[in-house]
Amino acid sequence: MFAAAARAPGAIAGLFRKYPWIGWAGWIVFVAAVLIRMHPRRFGAAFQYYLDFAAKLWAEQTIYDPASLGDVSYWPSSLLLFVPLTPLDSTVAGVIALSIFAGLFTYAAVSLTRALLDDRADALLLAGVLLLINIPAAWYHFKQVQLHIPMTAGMMLAAAAMIRARWSAAALWLVLALIAKPLALVMALLAGVLAPRMRLLLIAGIVAGFALPFAFVGANYLAGQYQLFGLKLWAVATAPPAEWVYQADFTTLLRAVGIVLPGPVSFAVRLVAALGTLALAWNVRRAGGSKALALALLLLSGCYITLFGPRNENVSFLVVTPSITALGLLMLLRNETDWRGWVLLLAAPVLGFVISLPVDAVVKPAVVMAIYLWAARQMIVPERWRLLVESPVPERPRDT
Asked: How far apart are CA 305 and CA 311, in angstroms?
């Protein structure tokens, strides 16, 4: 059994070399299956929430309830994206929205892979491998037509643009990610601090995202909703870990070993972790290298959002799995026997599959914490991280 396990990595690598299109085939089948099976029974309350609360925004009705951890916690610009879909049949609206989301995520995977691999000939095929590995993490969000998809895609596209020193494009993609979901603020803040050429555009984009709804609904109504939105975010950020049943983050990991933090203490830990994450990214920037910095920002943002973001759920790890996969692929393209790369690739589906709430609430944060600490160890010596990301990747001949 152990001998078979030892041979498995080589067999898997050989399969993809022999059939390099297998990743794209799996991804296309996955997306087509979700689109064909689109139905309110499948996307349930999640996508319907978007439509319902977008209609409330347009009708200038109350959106946010600070007394509830449920309901919607997206800012008004996020909901504004769905207003044009509200008059349509919900299934048709779901197909339209998911087609756009899937196209954006696919484009993001191709752009990130090509940027990391310097547009080498097989970068497009390797993007298919990245997408295939991320199907388990994407499954829930695609089925539920979640804004997590365009947020993650925007962050990936921003990283790809940063690698190519296209700072304006990177800032605009981050603004799009932020409009899709406020959690992208983590990467936007890191980029704003560490990439001065993006700073003004990011500030302008955030202001524009805040102000855009004022062009469509009454100012007094919207000001009141922003006040309620702020109160709701504070309630979510300071709630005890047991309050939100779907929670899976550092608080549920600690709870598994008998440590239950009060809400304000959890909030303080999130702030300290934010400063630590910024320090790691700052260290990477000192060593130089656009690839090293961009992938560090993408990975650190994903780890922070899933470990320390407010109300992270057991199904919400798509934001971190593409960067984990990309790093693992880079390492294995240099050395197919590098066990660290295989562990990273294995981590992506582990974070994607849903087992049960009690298991997910412990296993998934533990996996992300292990990756975060391992990455931190590399970034503490920034040249080590730079070599890990930026060392040349040799072209490999295909098996015949």
From this structure: 10
Rounded to whole angstroms, how far apart are CA atoms 51 and 298? Answer: 30
The residues near 213 (Cβ < 8 Å, ≥ 6 apart) are 57, 76, 77, 80, 222
272 CB-contact burial (10 Å; exposed 0-12 / middle 13-18 / buried 19+): exposed
Helix (H, G, I), strand (E, B) or coil at 11: helix
Residues of the chain with pLDDT under 70: 1-19, 69-71, 240-244, 396-400
For residue 298, count other CB atoms closer than 10 A to its CB. Answer: 27
Angstrom distance (rounded) from CA 68 to CA 47: 19
pLDDT in tens, 43-64: 777 788 889 889 999 999 988 8
* Residue range 130-167, pLDDT digits in tens: 999 999 999 999 999 999 999 999 999 999 999 999 99
Tokens of 227: 């006040």
Give residue 167's identity as a one-letter amino acid code.
Answer: W
Nearest Cα to 159, choosing from 135, 132, 138, 130? 130
Residue among 188, 183, 193 at smallest CA distance from 309: 183
Cα gap 186→192, rounded to integer Å: 10
Q: What gap in Å lies between CA 399 and CA 269, rounded to an integer?
A: 50
Residue 13: its pLDDT value, please? 60
Q: Write the single-letter amino acid at 287.
A: A
How far apart are the C-alpha atoms of 303 and 192, rounded to whole Å? 18
pTM to 2 decimal places: 0.92
**Residues linked to residue 313 through DSSP beta bridges, in sequence order:** 247
Residue 257: DSSP 8-state: T
Q: How far apart are the first and last CA of the chain?
A: 28
- The pLDDT assigned to 400 comes to 39
Picking from 319, 317, 377, 322, the residue whose alpha carbon sits closest to that of residue 344 is 322
CB 310 within 8 A of CB 269: no
In 3D space, the residue among 376, 266, 385, 364 whose CA is nearest the CA of residue 320 turns out to be: 364
